[in-house]
């Protein structure tokens, strides 16, 4: 694995001297090199500007206009609406409900999945080899399953009439025959969270368990000999070494779970009820379901702004890695 | 002090502890795999067994009817072909374009390098769904909505940041000394590229393209929004596969299996690289 360097926790790299800079030796060529490098990067930059930069700009402009179906079909410039879309969103209790729900779900699901992922990763270091192999294979299959297929699987498991979940619960003596899991939003969200956890744990557990192999065994052994209990070793040795990796996977989980879409979309058959709307589905439903393109754009802009804080954090971590080699 | 051959320390570890750890591990593995198992066996059950209030944990009558009926659906095969065409176009374009940028970032130190890294990392995290409205308008103005090329263009952008970042990692893994030695021996920069970097990045290119394939194959909401129902990929087809009388679970699960096979196979082939790719490249399909 040539690029394994990337997931190695930063402290392991810290003692490294600054990377050799061959530039100094070939300074005379510096200017030409710079030109070549920009030329090589040009296609990527052009595509990103055309297909991301420009749409981003259009999205912002659109959020200050009022584009409806008529403008979409006629191609006419939509009338300007100033900050109307934003006022509409920010004074709408539905919208605040969506924001609160998305944030609440993100906090709960990320906390649960990172804790579970760490727990499973630690468990994998403790079990015997065969069991570890079995856990690994099970997680690989779950991870490999496309998100949409995973969501359909959960829709099938929780089907009110033929779902195996109701059957098992009824067999256990609880009356769950023909129980619908999405009538009560708390139950519905529990199913969604279970799906997100189930699908997310493999990535977290496997990355963290790879990170755990970087924890020097000598340190742990020495601590044990010195009388540290497992909890103390975990807190004072393992977690500090794992910290950079933990930060990256947590940030990634925040970004993914904050943008929750597929699971709700599939479990609610493409028509999430108000209590199952998240920022992503809400913006999509407003734009494409109700042809409120500008309102949808305004919500997207707000979503991006909300995510920016988390993204800054992630990018700083990744930047450090990119600078090392 | 004992240490297992696989390097796991066992200081102060009791047999009962290991027993409970193993038991927990097995229960966890079974819980994880159960939904996958349930999709599999549902696909092989006849309709009356699927629609039974007492589910069977192993199909009584093994049948391939569900696969036949999924494959026989009017739009299934076309959507598979669409998926392959779009994915191939997007992955090929992302590899060519992304490799050049990765080369620049990994091998040249130049003014603006940091800026390019920053751009690549940032756009990787832009929520694509948010851009669907303007993307739709853009593609519409050049008559590319409801075409495969239009969707492939969007997927190209979806894959590009990850491709650049991962290939950068692979290229950085090749010792610079090789380049320098070749240049001292009289190779030009272009020759170094063709004879050293490109061949040595081979495995990286394969891993990156497979990963790109997985991502593009798994996407459904972009194509679902940009294209008519007749021009979908397999995932979007899966979303549409509902009958008037509710969900036909058997064929749906069979369809889910067929559309997942390429992804699962590819994933298992490159799984060693994928955790690294994700923490470094950070994209989830």
From TrEMBL, chain A:
Coiled-coil residues: none
Subcellular location(s) per record: Cell membrane
GO cellular component terms, A-Z: plasma membrane
Chain spans, region Disordered: 1-29
Official protein name in the record: N,N'-diacetylchitobiose transport system permease protein
All copies of domain ABC transmembrane type-1, residue ranges: 99-314
InterPro entries, alphabetized: MetI-like, MetI-like_sf, UgpAE/MalFG_permease
Top-rank taxon: Bacteria
Gene3D superfamilies from the UniProt entry: MetI-like (1.10.3720.10)
UniProt keyword list: Cell membrane, Membrane, Transmembrane, Transmembrane helix, Transport
Transmembrane regions listed in the UniProt entry: 35-57, 103-124, 136-157, 189-212, 245-266, 293-315
Family: Belongs to the binding-protein-dependent transport system permease family.
BP terms from Gene Ontology: transmembrane transport
Membrane-protein topology: Multi-pass membrane protein
Chief location: membrane
Entries under CDD domains matching the protein: TM_PBP2
SUPFAM superfamilies listed in its UniProt record: MetI-like
TrEMBL record, chain B:
Keyword list, A-Z: Cell membrane, Membrane, Transmembrane, Transmembrane helix, Transport
GO BP annotations, alphabetical order: transmembrane transport
Membrane topology type: Multi-pass membrane protein
Protein's UniProt keywords contain Transmembrane helix: yes
One GO CC term, this protein: plasma membrane
Ranges that cross the membrane: 20-41, 75-103, 115-137, 149-171, 192-214, 248-270
Pfam family, one: BPD_transp_1
Domain ABC transmembrane type-1: 80-270
Listed CDD domains: TM_PBP2
Domain of life: Bacteria
Compartments, record wording: Cell membrane
Family listed: Belongs to the binding-protein-dependent transport system permease family.
Protein name: N,N'-diacetylchitobiose transport system permease protein
Native organism: Actinoplanes lobatus
């Amino acid at each position: 694995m040539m690029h394994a360097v990337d997931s190695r926790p930063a402290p392991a790299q810290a003692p490294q001297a600054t990377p050799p800079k061959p530039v100094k030796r070939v300074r005379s060529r510096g200017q030409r090199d710079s030109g070549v490098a920009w030329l090589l990067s040009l296609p990527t930059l052009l595509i990103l500007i055309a297909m991301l930069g420009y749409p981003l700009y259009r999205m912002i402009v659109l959020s200050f206009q009022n584009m409806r179906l008529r403008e979409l079909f006629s191609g006419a410039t939509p009338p300007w609406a100033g900050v109307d879309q934003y006022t509409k969103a920010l004074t709408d209790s539905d919208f605040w409900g969506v924001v609160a729900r998305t944030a609440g779900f993100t906090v709960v699901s990320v906390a649960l999945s990172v804790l579970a992922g760490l727990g499973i990763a630690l468990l994998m270091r403790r079990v015997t080899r065969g069991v570890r192999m079995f856990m690994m294979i099970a997680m690989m299959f779950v991870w490999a399953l496309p998100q949409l297929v995973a969501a359909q699987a959960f829709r099938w498991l929780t089907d009110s009439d033929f779902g195996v979940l109701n059957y098992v619960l009824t067999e256990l003596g609880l009356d769950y025959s023909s129980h619908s899991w999405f009538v009560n939003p708390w139950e519905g969200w529990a199913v969604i969270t279970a799906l997100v956890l189930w699908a997310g744990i493999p990535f977290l557990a496997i990355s963290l368990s790879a990170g755990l192999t970087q924890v020097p065994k000598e340190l742990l052994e020495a601590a044990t000999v010195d009388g540290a209990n497992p909890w103390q070793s975990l807190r004072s040795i393992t977690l500090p070494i794992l910290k950079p990796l933990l930060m990256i996977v947590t940030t990634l989980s925040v970004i993914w779970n904050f943008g929750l879409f597929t699971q709700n979309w599939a479990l609610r058959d493409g028509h999430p009820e108000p209590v199952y709307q998240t920022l992503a589905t809400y913006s999509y439903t407003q734009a494409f379901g109700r042809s409120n393109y500008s309102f949808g754009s305004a919500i997207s802009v707000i979503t991006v702004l909300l995510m920016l804080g988390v993204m800054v954090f992630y990018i700083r971590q990744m930047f450090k890695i990119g600078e090392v080699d | 002090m004992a240490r297992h051959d696989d390097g796991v320390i066992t200081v102060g570890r009791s047999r009962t502890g290991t027993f409970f750890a193993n038991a927990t591990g097995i229960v966890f593995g079974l819980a994880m795999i159960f939904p996958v198992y349930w999709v599999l066996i549902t696909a092989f059950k006849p309709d009356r067994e699927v629609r039974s209030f007492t589910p069977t944990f192993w199909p009584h009558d093994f049948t391939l009817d569900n696969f036949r009926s999924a494959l026989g659906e009017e739009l299934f095969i076309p959507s598979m072909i669409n998926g392959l065409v779009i994915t191939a176009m997007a992955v090929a374009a992302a590899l060519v374009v992304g490799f050049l940028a990765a080369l620049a970032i990994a091998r040249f130190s130049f003014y603006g390098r940091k800026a390019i890294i920053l751009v690549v990392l940032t756009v990787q995290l832009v929520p694509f769904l948010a851009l669907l409205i303007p993307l739709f308008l853009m593609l519409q103005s050049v008559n590319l909505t409801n075409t495969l090329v239009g969707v492939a263009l969007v997927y190209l952008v979806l894959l590009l940041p990850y491709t650049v970042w991962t290939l950068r990692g692979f290229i950085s893994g090749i010792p610079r000394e090789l380049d320098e030695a070749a240049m001292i021996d009289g190779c030009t920069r272009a020759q170094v590229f063709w004879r050293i970097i490109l061949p040595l990045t081979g495995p990286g290119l394969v891993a990156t393209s497979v990963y790109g394939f997985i991502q593009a194959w798994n996407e459904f909401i972009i194509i679902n929004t940009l294209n008519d129902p007749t021009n979908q990929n397999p995932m979007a087809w899966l979303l549409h596969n509902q009958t008037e009388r509710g969900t036909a679970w058997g064929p749906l699960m069979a369809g889910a299996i067929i559309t997942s096979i390429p992804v699962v196979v590819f994933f298992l082939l490159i799984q060693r690289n994928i955790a690294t790719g994700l923490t470094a490249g950070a994209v989830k399909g």
